[in-house]
Amino acid sequence: MLIVFGGLLWVGFSGWFIDDIDRPGGHVPIPALAAFALVGTALAGARPVGR
After folding, report:
1. Is the pTM of the predicted complex or chain greater than 0.70?
2. What DSSP state is assigned to residue 51?
3. pLDDT tens for residues 24-46?
């Protein structure tokens, strides 16, 4: 789950902030990175739906 959803989330974030990333010295805003880290942490702790 972490790899699939985290990867899709990162693609979404980088697509949303492409103008910020594309300029020299640009970066994704800190609140967006913090949100990504929180969601990634939640996904890492999620258990797969099992038997």
Report:
1. no
2. -
3. 777 778 888 898 889 888 888 87
30 touches 13 (CB < 8 A)? no
CA-wise closest residue to 7 among 22, 15, 26, 17:
15
C-alpha distance from residue 24 to each of 1, 10, 11, 14, 27 (Å): 33, 20, 20, 15, 9
43's CB contacts (< 8 A; 6+ apart) are 1, 2, 5, 6
The residue among 8, 10, 3 whose CA lies nearest residue 32 is 10
Burial class (CB in 10 A: 0-12, 13-18, 19+), 39: middle
The Cα 34–Cα 45 span in angstroms is 17
